[in-house]
Every structure is written in C-alpha cells, then in structure tokens.
C-alpha cells in the first residue's frame, strides 16, 4: 500500500493535490502541534475539509501531545485510520480500543529510538504499526538505514503471533529505499517528496508500488504473509 503524504504537497491546493494521487491506497495526513514535535501543521477543520474533497481514505498520523483527547475528533472529521505515538499516549490500549469503536483503524507509531519489544502484548489491539524511519517533525529527511533491523524484528513478532497487522514505514521512503523496507517486512509505505516532487505523482505511486511488490515477492516473509 502506498500512502502519499500531503506534508509534501502544496497546502494552497490541497484538494487538487489529493486528486493528483487518487490511485493511492490512503492519503497520509501529518498532524503536528509544535509540542510533541518542533513543527506545526494542520488541525481538525482542514482534515474535515480534505475528507470532503477526496474519495481516497485519510490516514491520520498524530504527532501531538495528548492523542487520547484529540484522536476521536479526527475520526469525526473523517479520518479512516488514526495513528498515535505510544510515547505520547497516556493509555494506548484504551485509546486503540476507542479508535476502533468509533469505526477507524487503530495504529500506533514508534519513534526511531523507541523499541518494539516492550509493546509486543499491545499488538493484537492494533490494525497497523508505524515504524518511523526518520525523526518525526519534518518532511524531506534522509532515510535511516539503522531502522531496517527494527522493521525485521517487528515483522517477526507479527508473524509469531499470527496477526493480520499492517506494518507501515514513514520517512525518507523513495524509489531508492522502498525495496529495502519491503524486503525487511513493511507493507504500507508513506512517501512524501518522492510522490509530490515527481512530475507525475500518480505514476510515482504506481512505480513505488511495483518496486515494493517485487521486493516483497522476493522476500521470505512475503511468502508466508
């Protein structure tokens, strides 16, 4: 699954930018509060407007403090999937269950320095897990290769528990890095500048998906997935 990130889009033309990638699986929307991360983006009203302007479902990534309070409002605004950071959540299990109860996919994100192992028991409560492959807060950063072993360990945990859990990567995903992510076990890819920096964003989505599918088919985990 390829989820273009509108963080790399033209914010003055969000409706048009959303339509430019209508072949994508989800539209990734980064919400930043200038507290949890040192950047400020958009909030509930913009998400609500965006959800009305596109048929592509919205994949919300909350890089904010107190996601326990705010996540339900983003679902009401039209989000089909909500990712909260475990580093910011007061009660991640309760929050995941509330997100699911409101009809959205529940996803949990880990910053690069946050290990997956302490949260193994939480995995059945989730629909998706996000491994950050850059420090959250800004688009256009270089991919952190040191995250590949963490992606592999996470895929092994998912397989060991027999879970149907999507594994998303976000940060520096491009034609040069997506195959390594797919080989390691990721199956959902957030791509910002690699899509919106291309002359043809829709073609960029197709090309990235093709590279990921080829790498997954060649990887050992892909056969059992």
How would you describe this protein?
By secondary structure, this protein is an alpha/beta fold. The protein has a single domain, classed as TIM Barrel (Alpha-Beta Barrel), CATH 3.20.20.70. It is 37% helix and 19% strand. Helix 3 runs parallel beside helix 4 and helix 6 runs parallel beside helix 8.
In short:
By secondary structure, this protein is of the alpha/beta class. It is built from nine helices and eight strands.
Give structural attributes.
225 residues, 9 helices, metal ion binding, single chain, eight-stranded parallel β-sheet, metal-binding, TIM Barrel, alpha/beta
Computed CA radius of gyration, to the nearest angstrom:
16 Å
Helix-residue proportion: 25-40%
- State the strand order across the main sheet: 1-8-7-6-5-4-3-2
| Name of the CATH architecture | Alpha-Beta Barrel
CATH topology: TIM Barrel
Within CATH, the superfamily carries the name Aldolase class I
Beta-strand content estimate? 15-25%
Number of strands: 8
The assigned structural class equals alpha/beta
Largest sheet descriptor: 8 strands, parallel
Distance between the termini: 14 Å
> What is the CATH class name?
Alpha Beta
